[in-house]
Specification:
This protein is of the alpha+beta class. The chain is 36% helix and 15% strand. It has 20 helices and 17 strands. Strand 4 and strand 5 form a beta hairpin. The two termini are 29 Å apart.
């Protein structure tokens, strides 16, 4: 589901018309292969809102609604200024005096907004806002962030006028009478509970068992994707389950035969607990790569670069929609899974967001004329924080909403996504743990191993390898051509584009989706027994600039820039609303 909300200052008497039910607008972010459910519209004096592809889970009350799932719902959830729910959601609530946007703790469901003297627009889609405005102002400040980590910079979007609602139950409050806009934020801090070290595990086990065990879902409509790792197994072991719970996994076709892979492991787990399990192949679609790439940008609006999970052209997610799967349950952790941090530089390395310029010669980098990649003041380390507290705060306030939220965006048009570990109750539990017990999944690993029925964890995953995919000739040739075409008209200067092209060569030996060879499997087996800190050091010490990844991200920026310029130009010629 996606939403669009339009509020005009001088239109508080006569209801705004909704031309074609926003149909012309939704064509810009609904892909060619997908037919959504009929749109649902909410209308009152001065206010027009629509929900695209509404699912049965949608709840609307008066002029208020939320996308997502609430695990705790106050009676006054729909009233501006009312109680704050728990769960994964984007909450929009309004009356004749006030319009509010409320985020959940981890920013799982993105909300963007634009405000000026005449109009307030909010949406889960940046494209929708740009279409309504009929203009586009590129935001080059987000480019080095995207090139470094594959997603936007803090609170940034493609258009410099558009702002993102912060995580941690932040609120954007529009006073419709005075036409003023306020941002209400909450300070996120960690307050470890002091107790004997031997008690932390029992404390964690009791709290997690109670928190996850209290969540109720309709297992006829919600499914649990099982990987071979810790997170999804924790949900399987700790959440209420019955024989109606459906489990599933996906990956390339050969994954079913890999005895150390996550699909094979998932099937064993499901069989042990007498649960149904379905496997969905995610193989490279026979469609031209250009068409797969177009769907990827249309659905996700270029927020993240994680294309490897959608090489089937979103066929699996279409199947979920056609099968009336209401939502999937994911095991995303609420804090970083990396070891204890010892410096600010290490914090951003652990967040997979090292400054982009650090990987290159300074003189060379300066010729590229990219924007500065400054960390906003409110996202810098506080004097009273440890480095690990700082890292986990940055994870909740930035990485989770940008990276995890962006990945959710790729799914939310088709079905809902619920991450029980990213609810307020669980995040609050993690805030009471000392650094060494939050880092490296220490307590979660211990808990799952204690409850584990004896089935080994997987060593290899089953989706197409991202790094291999970007080296495939069909991808490299597409990226090279797009870079070349943008040489004189795109958002980057020629020297940067030339440097990328020079470092791209298609690998004709890449065999995507084939089973790993003995050498690869042995290496992964050995690595799996090493402490997480050692695994990270081995990985980081061998890393240099990955030009295939950087070039692909640059290609995404180029394509989104061209796409948004075209959308804005079309909207000027055929305005959806005459915004003055």
């Amino acid at each position: 589901m996606k939403f669009i909300c339009l509020c005009q200052r001088e239109s508080n008497v006569t209801p705004l018309p909704i031309p074609l039910n926003f149909t012309n607008l939704t064509e810009k972010f609904v892909p060619d292969h997908f037919t959504p459910n009929p749109m649902r519209s909410i209308q009152s004096p001065g206010l027009s809102m629509s929900i695209i592809n509404p699912l049965d889970i949608l709840e609307v009350k008066n002029d208020s609604f939320y996308l997502g799932l609430l695990t705790h719902k106050p009676q006054d959830w729909h009233i501006p200024g009312g109680g704050i729910p728990d769960g994964n959601y984007a909450l929009i609530r309004a009356n004749e005096d006030t319009l509010e946007l409320v985020s959940d703790v981890s920013g799982t469901h993105p909300m963007w907004y634009y405000y000026d003297e005449q109009v307030f627009i909010a949406s889960s889609s940046q494209v929708a806002i740009i279409s309504l405005l009929g203009s586009y102002q590129p935001n080059p400040k987000t480019y080095p962030w995207f090139l470094s980590g594959g997603h936007h910079g803090p609170l940034m979007g493609w258009d410099q006028r558009i702002r993102k609602v912060r995580s941690n139950h932040s609120k954007i409050v529009l006073d419709r009478n005075q036409w003023t806009l306020d941002e209400v934020t909450n300070k996120l801090s960690f307050s470890p509970v002091k107790m004997d070290s031997s008690r932390y595990f029992s404390y964690y086990q009791e709290e997690m068992t109670n928190l996850l065990g209290s969540i109720n879902l309709d297992y006829h409509r919600w499914v649990l994707p099982l990987s071979g790792g810790v997170d999804s197994r924790a949900l399987l072991l700790l959440m209420k389950r019955d024989l109606n719970l459906r489990t599933l996994s996906w990956g390339h076709s050969s994954a079913e035969k890999n005895p150390i892979g996550d699909v094979y492991t998932a099937k064993k787990l499901a069989k042990h607990f007498h649960l149904s399990h379905e496997f969905y192949p995610v193989d490279i679609s026979p469609l031209p790569f250009e068409q797969i790439f177009d769907r990827f940008l249309t659905i996700g609006e270029g927020r993240v670069d994680a294309i490897a999970g959608y090489v089937d052209g979103f066929d699996v997610w279409n199947q979920f929609f056609d099968q009336n799967i209401e939502g999937i349950i994911r095991g995303d952790l609420p804090v970083s899974q990396m070891p204890v941090a010892k410096s600010v530089e290490e914090v951003w390395e652990y967040l997979c967001m090292p400054p982009f310029k650090n990987s290159f010669n300074k003189e060379l980098y300066d010729t590229w004329e990219l924007s500065d990649q400054d960390i906003p003041k409110d996202l810098q380390k506080r004097d009273d924080e440890t480095f690990t507290e700082y890292r986990d705060r940055a994870f909740i306030e930035y990485r989770a909403p940008s990276c995890h939220g962006g990945r959710n965006d790729l799914k939310l048009l088709h079905t809902e996504v619920f991450s029980p570990l990213q609810t307020t109750a669980v995040v609050n539990l993690y805030k009471t743990l000392p650094d060494e017990y939050r880092a490296g999944k220490t307590l979660l690993n211990q808990l799952v191993k204690k409850l584990n029925p004896g089935i080994p964890f997987a060593i290899t995953d089953s989706v197409v390898d991202y790094k291999e995919y970007l080296r495939h000739p069909l991808v490299v040739n597409f990226v090279r051509q797009n870079l070349q075409d943008s040489m004189n008209s795109g958002p980057f200067n020629q020297k940067f584009i030339q440097h990328l092209i020079k470092n791209l060569n298609p690998d004709t030996k890449v065999q995507i989706g084939k089973r790993q060879n003995f050498k690869t499997i042995t290496r992964r087996k050995v690595k799996s027994f090493l402490p997480r800190a050692w695994q990270y050091k081995i990985k980081s010490s061998s890393q240099g600039p990955d030009f295939y990844r950087i070039a692909f991200r640059a290609c995404m920026i180029i394509q989104m820039d061209a796409r948004l310029k075209e959308i804005a130009a079309q909207s000027q010629q055929n305005p959806i609303y005459n915004l003055v």
